[in-house]
Amino acid sequence: MRKPIPYNKVKIVDRDTVKFGDPVFDAFISEKGGIELATMIALSGTSGAGKTTLCKKWQKDLSEDEVSVFYALESLKSSVARQTSRIKTSNTELICDEEDFPKWSEFMDYLYEDEPTMVIIDSLQHAATLLSKDNGKHKYQNYKEIIKDLYTWKDKTQGIVILICQLNAEGKMEGPASTIFDVDCPIKLTADPKTGERYMTTEKNRMGPIGKLFYEFVNTEACIKFYTVEQWEVERKGVDLEEMINSTIEKFLNAYSTHKNYEKFRAEFAPLYRRIYGSTNDPHTITCKTIALIQGLSKKYFR
């Protein structure tokens, strides 16, 4: 009979990662840099965010000996190829559609036979509809089946799965949203029509950190360039040093908002800060004096 074992007896598999050549994205997506093998990512996005373009870029950025396949179910492969024609690819970046694999089971058979490094499904909702033709179930009932099939495949073959998911008019996942929590890392792309900014966010990531990256389409071979939040603030929005330091100061103070001495800290800090602000018009002097004030009061109340 099997029995539980101590943690220090568990064999941990140290997985490789697939890097995509953009150091900002590679550092963002995992602690090791790049996407770990045997990982499933759910990719959703608002209109104009560039899901399809990003996926083809990921295909292009794989090393020359890595094969990837895009299963186009939302539109024909000819439409996808035309839409993303600016991204030049080679013979290892593949695409197919429902005409090539009219049944979900046939596509899964292909994946087990050829074992590509990365597979992109566009989209979960269309794959579930395709499976409905075989089993007669409503597509919503097939969401978990699709994810289970892909999860089993990526664990057995150490492949990477990018599962594109559609959003409804409210910006939430169309259909049972709970299924998205079965994946390793949900990524949401947002194109803000008011600011013109595009960014990706992760609220869960089994590979490492969560957070936010900005990106933009560029007229170079890279096609897309990524920026950390700090890089975006400085390089694209022109935030100066004082503004960034003051923003950091505010975040530092907010981090102590639940500390038992926070109110006492604020009570002493407020009048001293007003005195600094009223003594000079030089932003640099105000910033330096404020930092010194916070350092002194932090030692008094938070240490």
* Secondary-structure content class: alpha/beta
What is the number of strand segments?
Answer: 11
- Helix fraction by DSSP (H/I, runs of at least 4): 40-55%
**Looking at the structure, what is the overall shape?**
elongated
Named CATH topology of the largest domain? Rossmann fold
According to CATH, the homologous superfamily of the largest domain is P-loop containing nucleotide triphosphate hydrolases
Strand and helix layout:
Blueprint: E1 17-18, H1 23-29, E2 35-36, E3 39-45, H2 51-61, E4 68-72, H3 77-83, E5 93-97, H4 104-114, E6 118-122, H5 124-135, H6 143-157, E7 160-165, E8 185-191, E9 198-202, E10 211-217, E11 224-228, H7 229-236, H8 241-255, H9 262-279, H10 283-301
Parallel strand pairs: 3-7, 3-8, 4-5, 4-6, 6-7
Antiparallel strand pairs: 1-2, 8-9, 9-10, 10-11
Structure commentary:
Strands 5-4-6-7-3-8-9-10-11 form a nine-stranded mixed sheet, with helices on both faces. Strands 1-2 form a two-stranded antiparallel sheet. It has two domains: 13-236, Rossmann fold, CATH 3.40.50; 241-301. The mean pLDDT is 90. The radius of gyration is 24 Å and the shape is elongated. The chain is an alpha/beta fold. The protein is built from ten helices and eleven strands.
